[in-house]
Amino acid sequence: MYPLIFAGLLSMSVATPRLAQINPVNAVRIYENARQELQEVKQEREEYLMQVKEQVQTRIEAHRAEIEKVANERLRNRLTEMTNRFVSINGKWTSHWTDVLNRLDTILTKIEANSSELAASEVDTTLLDAAIDDAHAAIDAATQSVQDLASKEYIYNIDDEATVGENVREEISLFKTDMETVRADVTAARESVQEAFSQLRVLTSENE
Amino acid sequence: MNNKKGITALLLVIFVLVALIAIYFVYMLSQTQGDTMMIEDDMTANPPAVEEVSDSTDVDTIEAELEATITGSPSEEIELMESDAQSL
Q: pTM for the full model?
């Protein structure tokens, strides 16, 4: 008798649609609480990047001084130009990817706020929370990767004018590989945030 | 008569010399401009802009903001560097 009543109650509870939905006001409040911490993380990243770039700049200036000693004027100008391009491209893209990672972090925080709000409404957010943790780890890994790239100065040997061209080409090849690696890490971070969002979308669709 | 021929030949030589010097200056000027243009091109090839995200936690807004997050690629600039370094 009792098992039958229990089974009946269980089937009723399964059949009853869950009323849990994201309360946008609560989600915004949770996000605003987390925003201060997020701003601090962003500021730390930007300050660290600036610090690394200043250290690189010192080593680059020493390399530029070496280039100035090259007797052949045309070669000297080409080498200066190449060094400028290493610095310019590295600087622009490490700044850009830092901005992208900051943006992804903000988006992930908003996903997290929605997750908290769903959990407060007794929705099972286990998969979503696991995806959020993975995304945090991917963003941290990509941030480290960007900072490592920013700390590299791509200096080549200029002792022998006959081999300097080959040295520059080897350095460009290394630079290209490094840039592709960092880009792949940033893309992986974006995909992991996308995965967390997909989990959120599943839960919100189920609870509409 | 011989003097006239001599002066004409001298003027011709001077004219050729002036023309050669002018060609040399034009060539050097074009090289300098080429280098400057390459540097300027490099400076203008910026990564895509990254806009600030809104404070909205609405799911559709989050989706739109995520889609608008562009990783970008510096491959074109590096390929240009590779190409230019071939002549070093």
A: 0.76
